[in-house]
């Protein structure tokens, strides 16, 4: 059962609609409106970004694998659909979720080492003086999740489709980063892992940085990714996909529309994805992919070749979707959700988010256990 997503507890018990999620969260707040009114919280996307940052910081200290950190984030999302966040110490929940995830992903960490690293990382949380607090919280997490601890991740689908879709190493790396970023959204609770993986592949094919950008463009892209990493928020994929332009959006729309309509390739299309009339899409693609300044004939030829390869791959991906039983509308929704998240992420303020969380922890004495 564990190896089959369709028979898993993840699909049966932990896959919700947006309306169901909103209703569950509202119910938790309604149960104690006084507590909610006394302590304001950051917006949910900002909380998710903060949790992601803290898990990554703790995980890197311990050398934890990415899949275990991803599982920990899913545990936190599940737990907070059952328990109002203001009733907990999120730093303890983060530590415990990672401790439990490491067990389930077969890379266990000793509870004392986990507690020691958490105490060093969050020095203002006195409860980490006692490792037994993690053990107590572990039972709480397991209970609220009804012992449904096996998590199916999109990474397996991604690696399984690499050869079938002819993905390059750059596309694989960007897809992997996009999957990492999706844990900062509600997507793990809304869609199956294979849908998320296909969304990541689609975005990676369309928005991956050009291999033939000018040195200045490459340096700017590297600086953007370095800045994102320095901020601790991950989202390297968001930096790589910055300013995709209308050509990329048109390519995504065309590929999904073609697959959904089960249309065969257009005669004489030369592998190009169906787009706006009059070759508008390819003209936009040239404008979006081309360098800002003048280019030599060899550079222009290389750019043209890469553009054709990219649209040919989009066409191939669209045909693959058309022959499958994949829910195309779900991929569209996933794509919109993630692109919206990247826009929303620009408003994130780490200092303010942490202050709001620590405020209710201190006020309610949750920092002492």
From TrEMBL:
Q: Which Gene3D superfamilies match?
A: Cyclin-like
Family recorded in the similarity comment? Belongs to the cyclin family. Cyclin C subfamily.
**What Pfam families does the database record attribute to this sequence?**
Cyclin_N
Mention one GO biological process in which this protein takes part, according to its record.
regulation of transcription by RNA polymerase II
Q: Which organism is it from?
A: Cytospora leucostoma
Give the CDD domains listed for this entry: CYCLIN_CCNC_rpt1
Tell me the segments the record calls region Disordered.
259-301
Protein name as annotated: RNA polymerase II holoenzyme cyclin-like subunit
Can you give the residue ranges of the Cyclin-like domain? 53-143
Q: Name one GO molecular function term.
A: cyclin-dependent protein serine/threonine kinase regulator activity
Q: Keywords assigned by UniProt?
A: Cyclin
Q: Where is the composition biased (Gly residues)?
A: 268-278
Q: Where are the compositionally biased (Low complexity) regions?
A: 279-297
